[in-house]
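Hi C.,

You asked whether I'd gotten around to modeling the 175-residue construct. I have! Everything is below, sequence then structure, no commentary in between.
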Amino acid sequence: MELATFGGGCFWCTEAIFKELKGVQSVTSGYSGGNIVNPAYREVCSGRTGHAEVVEIEFDPEIISFQELLEVFWATHDPTTLNQQGADVGTQYRSVIFYHNKKQQETAEIIKQHLNKEAIFEKPVVTEISPWENFFRAEAEHQDYYERNPAQGYCQFVIVPKLDKFRKIFKEKIK
């Protein structure tokens, strides 16, 4: 098993998407990239801790590669906006890849360069690519959020459309 750590806006959305992929064993919502130990959700939302809302993905590289995870990552959020995903604004919502080894770093950088060179998006990809230093599990109420709250407004208006898009594009990769 290997780990991948991605921030693509609200971790509720990101978690819901990656949990559906073949080869993904677990997805945990949490915080990375900040300057305090074990931050609370309210602290991270203040934007003063430096953390991003992220998901830590445990995956089987024999079933799904890191590159395939990156393809899903870049296709399911807007990697061209700095510190914002839709109505969610702040450094905690930045597009970020926290790589766990040199191979992940190189893969992420090569794909980001390709996306920009080929102008795949209308604007340049600004996704941060940084070394993984820490991960702090988010509070229990943030784990499996979509599964536990499918009728909640945010889930209906933000997560469901993202899941619909994801399922259409990546149907062959869904469990």
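If it helps when you're writing up: The first helix runs from residue 11 to 18.

Thanks,
B.
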